[in-house]
Specification:
- The chain is α/β, with parallel strands linked by helices.
- It folds into 2 domains: 286 residues, 4-Layer Sandwich (Metallo-beta-lactamase, Chain A); 147 residues, 2-Layer Sandwich (Nonspecific Lipid-transfer Protein, Chain A).
- Helix content is 36%, strand content 22%.
- The strands form 4 sheets. Strands 7-6-5-3-2-1-16 form a 7-stranded mixed sheet, with helices on one face. A 7-stranded mixed sheet has the order 8-9-10-11-12-13-15. Strands 19-18-17-20-21 form a 5-stranded mixed sheet.
- Helix 11 packs antiparallel against helix 12 and helix 13 runs antiparallel to helix 15.
- The radius of gyration is 22 Å and the shape is globular.
- The N and C termini lie far apart (56 Å).
């Protein structure tokens, strides 16, 4: 019988092979992402990529975040050439906006779009299914004749009730691949207690996932990064390391395996390689000596105001200005209220309003602090605020963050191909998920305040 092998390439990228079918996930191998906010703990050069692609039949992209969907990887001419010559198929979830699929097709790449509950045979003995989670996330189920694998990457499958619901629909799994550390802003430089709590919650989540889904083995991955900007570098103080994860599970019966980039194992005979742990230990110790990214240039206020005008025009084009106005007047909900933004590099506080733009505020009290580059990025990109919350290059109080989200996160909604209008009322699930996420953050912050 054919063997099923797994190779860790880097971060959330693994190559799972069975016979002639080899599925490569989420290829991101170099450079910074999330607007100069993250870097890989272990980085390698382009020379290795061609060898990886030569062994690949399919590429699975879990979602649009740049540590999973690297545009630089697909824009690389040499990578494109190998993908085309080897007839490598790219697989991605169905989305309303089709932005990723259209991007890849314009490059001349072959893409298969997966719909909800669609199961597809790859060759004669491998079946796969993409499962959507929340707004943009997806997981991949791989079935071979003797194995069932769940690539959960960083999908938000946290609550016991949600995991049990997932199991009821999709069953148990032999092997689970899942994220093992926090991957977004956690309460500001003074809130190490929140980061420690977030790290522990992540470990408890892995335990729940593995126990409820009856997993025989767990490969923690999708967290081999560090916060690389001088504004967010402090967040590395509480990240989970392979040693912390192994220690947490030392008294359990769960088979936790950390692979090192380039390591290949047979999925049914997974064992921890001590040298892999040693190598990761060295990499994590070097984080404090690693490169720190910076925002070297300030964006002048006139340029910010000019970018805002374009931003506001796009917002009112894709959303109902009337509904935004009504929500702004319903102050109990706190949507689209003016927010006070402190720009570190300007050493000034500005009042921001979707209707009135930016104006200088004389007092030094604020809801949120960031670099002018970050505010400019928000105005230039629909996913800008989502990027900021992930890279953590800002500071805010609990209420300030909640208020800022309710004013600036509308771009994230538009990036999903949705608008704040009467049609959105049909998307009750989307509204529920957004409110649930906001409540989840606020509830957890208040627990430790």
């Amino acid at each position: 019988m054919k063997k099923t092998n797994i190779e860790l390439i880097n971060h959330a990228s693994v190559l799972i092979s069975h016979g002639k079918t080899s599925i490569l996930s989420d290829p991101w191998y170099m450079g910074s992402v999330f607007h100069n906010g993250w870097r890989l703990i272990h980085e390698f050069d382009n020379n290795k990529i061609s060898g990886i692609l030569s062994r690949t039949s399919h590429i699975y992209i879990s979602h649009e975040h740049p540590d999973h969907f690297s545009t630089n990887f697909f824009l690389n001419k040499e990578n494109q050439k190998i993908i085309k010559n080897n007839n490598i198929k790219i697989i991605f979830q169905h989305t309303k906006d089709k932005r990723i699929i259209n991007f890849l097709k314009k490059l001349g790449l072959s893409v298969k779009e997966f719909y909800e509950d669609e199961k597809v045979k790859l060759g004669s003995s491998v079946e796969i299914q993409i499962v959507k989670h929340d707004f943009i996330d997806s997981s991949l189920i791989i079935k071979t004749p003797n194995l069932k694998i769940l690539n959960l990457n960083d999908c938000p499958l946290r609550d016991e009730r949600e995991i049990k619901k997932f199991k009821k629909k999709h069953g148990s799994f032999d092997l689970l691949l899942t994220q093992f550390s926090y991957a977004a802003w956690k309460g500001g430089i003074e809130r190490k207690d929140y980061r420690e709590k977030a790290s522990m919650e992540k470990l408890k989540t892995i335990k729940n996932q593995a126990t409820i889904l009856n997993c025989k083995s767990i490969i923690p991955f999708a967290s081999f990064v560090y916060f690389s900007n001088e504004l967010n570098f402090y967040m590395n103080d509480s990240i989970n390391t392979p040693d912390k994860v192994k220690n947490f599970f030392s008294s359990s019966n769960l088979n936790i395996i950390f692979l090192y980039p380039g390591e290949i194992q047979e999925c049914q005979k997974l064992r921890q390689n001590v040298l892999s742990l040693d190598s990761w230990r060295k990499n994590y110790k070097e984080i404090n000596n690693n490169k720190k990214d910076q925002f070297n240039e300030s964006i002048y206020i006139d340029n910010l105001k000019e970018a805002f005008i374009s931003y506001r025009n796009k917002i009112f084009k894709k959303n109902s200005k009337f509904l935004i106005y009504i929500l702004s007047k319903t102050k109990i909900l706190n949507f689209f209220q003016p927010i006070k933004i402190n720009l570190y590099d300007h050493k000034k506080v500005y009042i921001y309003s979707i209707f009135d733009g930016l104006s200088e505020y004389k007092n030094f009290e604020f809801d949120i602090s960031m670099h002018s580059q970050s505010l400019f990025f928000i105005f230039k990109n629909e996913f800008g605020f989502d990027t900021l919350t992930v890279n953590g290059c800002f500071d805010a109080s609990i209420n300030g963050f909640s208020k800022s989200t309710k004013s600036l996160a509308i771009g994230s909604l538009n990036a999903l191909g949705l608008g704040l209008n009467l049609k959105l009322l049909k998307e009750i699930k989307i509204i529920f998920i957004f409110l649930k996420k906001l409540n989840f953050f606020s509830r957890n912050m208040k627990k430790i305040t």
